[in-house]
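Researcher: Let's run the pair from yesterday's discussion. Sequence first, then C-alpha cells, for each.
Model: Starting with the first of the pair.
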Amino acid sequence: MKKVDFKSGLTKSVNDGFCDGSHAPEAACIKWLFYFLLPLTFFNIACSHAQSTGNAGGEVFLLNKADFLTKVYNYEKNSDEWTFEGKKPCIIDFYADWCGPCRRVAPIMKELASEYKGRIDFYKIDVDKEQELAAAFGITSIPLILFVPVGGKPQAAAGFQPKETIVEQIDGFLLGKTDSKEE
C-alpha cells in the first residue's frame, strides 16, 4: 500500500492498479466510481418504487388511532354500529414489543401479507402506544388478531395462532372460500 498523499487526493490513496496514480488516474477512478455507483443507483430507484406502490412487498403496516379511524372503523363518529371504512378485508394484529407470543406471530403476519397481497390489508397496533384503541376493543390479552371482513362484523382470535389457523380464518371468514386449497 502506498503512502497517502492528501494533497493529491484519491489517486494516491488506494492500492496499485486501482486509482494509484498510474495509467491515467482520473480515468481509472471515474471508471471505478461508474461501475460501483451505477448499480447502487438502480437499486435505490427500485427500492423507492417498491415503497411508493403501497403493499408491494406484502407489508404489515403499523396503525395509530388516526389511521385506524380512517382505514378500519371510526368508533368516534359511529359508536352504535360497526361500519368498516376499508375497501378490502383486513387483519389487525394487536401486539406489544415485550410480548413473546406477539414476536412469534409477527413473522407469520409478514408471510401472509406477502401471500395475500392485493387481496387483504395487514395492520398491526402496538397496545402500549395506542392504549385508547386497546381499551375501545376491551383488549386484555395479547396477541389478539382481529379479522375484519368488508361486510359484517369482525372476529377475534386471542393468543398465539399458528399460520394454518390464521389461513383457515382468512380463506373461510374473510375471503368466503369453502376449501382453503382453492386459489
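Model: Moving on to the second of the pair.
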Amino acid sequence: MAAAETLAWVDRAVIGLNLCPFARAVRVKGQIRCVVSDAADIETLLRALCGEAQRLLDTDPTQCETTLLVHPQVLTDFGDYNDFLDIAEAALEELGCDGVLQLASFHPDYQFAGTEPDDVTNATNRSPYPTLHLLREESLDRAVQAFPEAEAIYETNIATMEALGTAGWQLLASSCRDDAVAQAAGAPTAAIRTTKPE
C-alpha cells in the first residue's frame, strides 16, 4: 500500500504537477525502484539505505535509474528525519557514493527553512511517507544540460503550489490514497503503473 501510494504521488504530484521535469521519462521506462522498508529504528534504516545504494551502483542505469526508499515506521517526526540526513550522507560517502549518487529528501511534514508548517510551498517535498531518494549524479547532470532553465525549477514549483493552494494539495493527496486503494483492490487507475519487478 505504501509503495502504491508513493508511486501515485510520483504520478500525480511529481510528474502531474511537473515538479521534476526529469521524472516522466524514467517513470515511463520503468526505471524507478520503489522499496518499502519495515525498519523501526535508525540503524536498520541506515543499513537498508546503504544496501539500496550499493544495489543501484551495481545495476545498469537502463534497468534502474533511481530508487525511492520509503520508511513508514521510522523518522516520522520531520525534525528527527532532517537530523538523520547528515548521518545518511556520511554513510553514503563512506560507501564511495560521493560524486556518484545523490540523496534527495521527502517527508509528509517537510518544511523549508524560513517557512511556516502550513505554508503550501512546503508541499513540493511532501511525500505520503518519509522517503529517501537515491539519484545518479551523472544522470542528473545530463538532465540539467538538456533542460536549459533548470535553475528556474524551484521558483516554478513554488508558483505551482501557490496556485494549487492548500485545498488543491489535500485533494491531490487524497487522490493518491484512492489510487493505492484501487490498485490494492485490482481496479484500474489513471496513474502510470510501470514499477520494475524485484
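Researcher: Give me one sentence on the second I can quote.
Model: The chain has six helices and four strands.
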